[in-house]
Amino acid sequence: MIEILSPTDLPRARATGALVATILQTLKSRTVVGTNLLEIDKWAHEMIVEAGAQSCYVDYEPSFGRGRSATTSARR
Predict the structure, then answer these.
(1) 34's torsion region: left (phi>0), alpha (psi -120 to 50) or beta?
(2) Could you tell me what percentage of the chain is helix, strand and coil, using 3-state DSSP and rounding each to the nearest 5?
(3) Ranges of each domain in the chain
(4) Could you tell me the pTM of the whole model?
(5) Please, are residues 28 and 52 in contact by the beta-carbon 8 Å criterion?
(6) What's residue 19's pLDDT?
(7) Using CA atoms, how far apart are residues 23 and 68, in angstroms rounded to an integer?
(8) Which of 5, 18, 73, 74 is 20–30 Å from 45 (CA)?
């Protein structure tokens, strides 16, 4: 679904997009082959909290090694 934002929503959407871009670039620079996925998840969570933001994956818990796919756990 495509959500159409009002002109008053655009500054918040831009700020959110900038935060996501910063987090992704930071994770890219910190990650090398063999980096533990749970460590990457922890870093992302810390950056989101430090920014005073809230993840859209409320109650999201990585399911690596628990027999469920990440897609399934994100839909809970």
Answers:
(1) left
(2) 55, 0, 45
(3) 11-74
(4) 0.68
(5) no
(6) 95
(7) 26
(8) 5
pLDDT at 28 over 50: yes
Q: What letter represents residue 37's amino acid?
A: L
**What is the band of 11 on the pLDDT scale with cuts at 50, 70, 90?**
very high
CB 27 within 8 A of CB 40: yes
Residue pair 23/47 in contact by the 8 Å Cβ criterion: yes
Percent of the chain exceeding pLDDT 90 equals 62
Give the Cα separation of 28 and 66 in Å (integer).
Answer: 26
Show the CA angle centred on residue 61, arms to residues 56 and 64, nearest 5°. Answer: 125
pLDDT of residue 16: 93
What is the token pair recorded at 71? 């897609």
